[in-house]
Design a protein that fits this description.
Layout: H1 18-28, E1 35-44, E2 47-56, H2 62-75, H3 102-118, E3 124-127, H4 130-138, E4 142-146, E5 152-155, H5 185-195, E6 201-208, E7 214-221, H6 227-238, H7 248-255, E8 267-269, H8 272-279, E9 284-288, E10 294-297, H9 315-345, H10 352-361, H11 369-389, H12 392-412, H13 418-432, H14 437-457, H15 459-475, E11 477-478, E12 481-482
Antiparallel strand pairs: 1-2, 2-4, 3-5, 4-5, 6-7, 7-9, 8-10, 9-10, 11-12
Helix pairs in contact: 5-8, 9-13, 9-14, 9-15, 11-12, 11-13, 14-15
Length: 533
């Protein structure tokens, strides 16, 4: 991927003269007071060598650099190595240039090897590209430049300001692991490695964003993930030429091809156990630095209605919870519109006692039903947004107390009826049962679409709106997989794929992985007591 475009500051190559490299660094980091540039000298092969240390204050462990880099160089500077290891990858070590003497080349190539024996650090790398060195420094590493060496020694010294591993807030569970991702890319990959101790787990790291140079990691199981899926994701990432990526949500918007669709085609999660489970199903994960959420490819309709603790509880309990979620998703999108259609156009469909109760509740209300529902729906959305923006305890208080007080006041003021308050409250409650926030947001938006179609055409409009949504869902594709698998295609509608859909059958019956996996590696439960070939 091309990480540098015309907007990036061009830098010259490394020079063997330290003074020239220092001039370039000072020009690049002018007015950057958080960049620590420390010149010093030490003894190398009985010769006084000028050196230059550069790192970012706040991103680097200053104490470690002082104790394990500078101090050993000052104390062990007299140590010499007379026979450096030749570098087979550098042809100049074997074919000397006519413009350079043999002694100069020997000293130049031996400097990195001698520094490795003097610095009390294990993670040291050589870098001969100036721009790559700048990226590592701005990411928290330390660069050591020495006079006579056209390159830099990079020292892994990151000490990033991060929060610890906390409990998942958006995807809380009653049973299962409590840890979640934080904003550190390396901490995130460690949480995955902790769960999958397999050499076939591959993590490919790269950067995106010409100015931010944000690190990302593409994670997959080598023997389970389909190669065409991996190639498609890598191709997607290679075409973006953008200044900055600050969160995985920005990258998700670029990779979401159906821009007009409110339904997400990429699943995001903050739970490491969900990512590990997805990887073992042949899916691919994309982790972005500075983001606590990981993207999963591909995503289907039912994956957004699955919760982590579905697999930690008995199958009867998990299946009952899933049935509730599917019913709640229908209520969250269609209940207000259905209420408007029935009470405005088809009151003859209601039982007499229910019709009298609704008529009594609306007897003193002056506004039509559509106005009542819109006012209450917008009021609940306003309270929800206010609860998110306010601090935690105060936000919860505003959401609960505000809804009760404002709802009761609206009823007493005869602006809305009690039936509408119940309908709107039940709709909001149903939307909160959907485990994925981005998926629930699509329902919150489309319920207004059904409200308007129902207000104009009644049940015909409600049915037409639901059919349009169903047709739209059936036409969505998520990285080669139909969105409504396994019910949209006979090719994918296999019985095995339905064992983990609306019902979650016992784990011992799901001996095959989903269709995301390579066909030759579908078996995940070997022969045993409950194995069914």
């Amino acid at each position: 991927m091309n990480s540098y475009t015309s907007t990036t500051t061009k830098t010259p190559p490394f020079s063997a003269k330290l003074s020239e490299n220092i001039l370039v660094l000072q020009a690049l980091f002018q007015d950057c007071d958080d960049i620590i540039q420390n010149p010093f000298s030490f003894s190398l092969e009985h010769t006084c060598r000028q050196a230059y240390l550069i790192y970012v204050d706040g991103l680097t462990d200053n104490v470690m650099i002082q104790e394990h880099v500078i101090q050993p160089l000052m104390e062990q500077g007299g140590h010499t190595i007379s026979s450096p290891i030749p570098n087979d990858n550098n042809p100049t070590d074997q074919n000397l240039s006519s413009s350079s003497s043999e002694s100069d080349l020997t000293i130049n190539s031996s400097i990195p090897f001698m520094l490795r024996s003097m610095i009390e650090m294990v993670d040291l790398t050589e870098e001969t590209c100036f721009e790559a060195m700048l990226t590592r420094v701005l990411s928290g590493d330390t660069a050591l430049l020495v006079d006579g060496y056209a390159g830099a020694i990079l020292i892994a010294s990151k000490k990033l300001p991060l929060r610890g591993i906390e409990e998942a807030k958006m995807e809380s569970v009653m049973r299962g692991p409590r840890d979640s991702f934080n904003e550190s890319l390396r901490a995130g990959t460690a949480l995955i490695r902790r769960r999958i101790k397999d050499t076939r787990l591959k993590i490919i790291q790269n950067t995106i964003g010409d100015r931010t140079r944000t690190d990302y990691a593409l994670i997959y199981m080598e023997d389970l993930a389909k190669q065409e899926l991996i190639d498609q994701i890598r191709q997607e990432l290679s075409v973006y030429d953008i200044d900055a990526i600050f969160d995985s949500g920005m990258l998700e918007q670029f990779m979401h091809k159906k821009w007009y669709s409110p339904f997400p085609t990429i699943q995001s999660t903050e739970r490491p156990d969900k990512v590990a489970s997805a990887l073992l199903e042949g899916r691919v994960a994309l982790m972005v630095d500075n983001s606590p959420e990981v993207m999963l490819f591909p995503a289907t309709f039912h994956t957004f209605l699955q919760a982590s603790d579905d697999y930690y509880n008995q199958w009867t309990v998990a299946s009952f919870a899933r049935i509730l979620r599917y019913l709640a998703s229908i209520l969250a999108i269609g209940l207000p519109g259905f209420y408007i259609a029935i009470t405005s156009y088809h009151i003859e469909m209601l039982p007499t006692r229910l019709l009298l109760a609704i008529a009594q509740a609306r007897s003193l209300v002056t506004f039509p039903v559509i106005t009542e529902v819109l006012v209450m729906e917008l009021l609940f959305e306003l309270l929800r947004e206010a609860g998110i923006r306010l601090p935690g305890p105060l936000g919860n208080t505003i959401g609960i107390v505000g809804g009760l007080i404002v709802g009761q006041a609206a009823v007493e003021a005869e602006l809305v009826s009690t039936i509408v308050v119940i309908v709107v409250a039940l709709t909001a409650l149903a939307s909160y049962t959907i485990p994925n926030e981005s998926f629930a947001s699509a329902y919150r938006l489309l319920k207004f679409f059904l409200i308007f179609t129902s207000a104009v055409w009644g049940l015909y409009g409600f049915t037409l709106g639901m059919m349009m949504i169903a047709i739209h869902l059936s036409g969505l594709i998520s990285f080669g997989i139909p969105y409504m698998v396994p019910f949209v295609s006979a090719l994918h509608g296999q019985q095995e794929n339905k064992k983990d859909y609306i019902l979650r059958l016992p784990l011992y019956t799901m001996y095959r992985r989903p269709l995301y996996t390579r066909a030759e590696h579908r078996i995940r439960i070997r022969k045993g007591t409950h194995y069914e070939p």
